[in-house]
């Protein structure tokens, strides 16, 4: 098989998908090598079908090369990660007050750089990571155990903040993911997330050449409207949405959203 733009994957690592809200198969918009971007005929949510199945995602995210070739590859990339972390913590601090004595749980914490920054501000931190390799690195960095698994497997908790940066677009079911994440915080607690913005100027202009399309990784593509619909569906209240690439929490990202929401109570 001719190598694809996003790699080549065995047929047994694929599965078809339906819209996580409407449970309907999508209508094809673009064929992307072995993947296809489709749109829900009812709500318009864009998603990949076929997509990598659980085994395919384990193979992809379980390799250390996945992390080392991306935002952890160079000193400059790591510096940008720290800038994002500090800017996002500023937003969280404004929503919950000073971080000291507050607890923060990160889902999809990768190598633990955000948790490290939160810990330095006085948050009591804990985390979860899908990749065993990344969880091991994060545990060593933080001096505490980062657990391996998926958020849907966790029992309810009463943290002040749950964060997941550039994670929700990767998960098989964003609705179930968001419900489980919201169950980790107390009433009045904050959900903080980021994800690519599908209605951003780069996405609309570049279409199949958009650098953040990444069909092997990004199952779901959210617009502002999509995210607000998801928040409403799981009973969360929007606090702040940031897309300005000059803000520290979103620095130089022309196609990304940072969102804070509150659990009522």
CATH architecture: 3-Layer(aba) Sandwich
Percent of residues in helices comes to 25-40%
Tell me the structural class. alpha/beta
Largest sheet composition: 7 strands, mixed
The CATH class name reads Alpha Beta
Care to describe what's here?
This protein has eight helices and 13 strands. With 265 residues, the protein is of the alpha/beta class. The chain has one domain (75-262): 3-Layer(aba) Sandwich (Rossmann fold). 42% of the residues are buried. The mean pLDDT is 94.
Quick structural gist:
The chain is built from eight helices and 13 strands.
Sequence-ordered SSE layout with sheet pairings:
Layout: E1 14-15, E2 27-32, E3 35-39, E4 46-48, E5 51-52, H1 54-61, H2 64-68, H3 75-96, E6 103-107, H4 113-120, E7 124-129, H5 132-142, E8 147-148, E9 159-165, H6 174-182, E10 185-196, H7 201-206, E11 220-221, H8 224-234, E12 237-242, E13 256-262
Parallel strand pairs: 6-7, 6-9, 7-8, 9-10
Antiparallel strand pairs: 1-5, 2-3, 3-4, 4-11, 10-13, 12-13
Keywords, separated by commas or semicolons:
Rossmann fold, alpha/beta, 265 residues
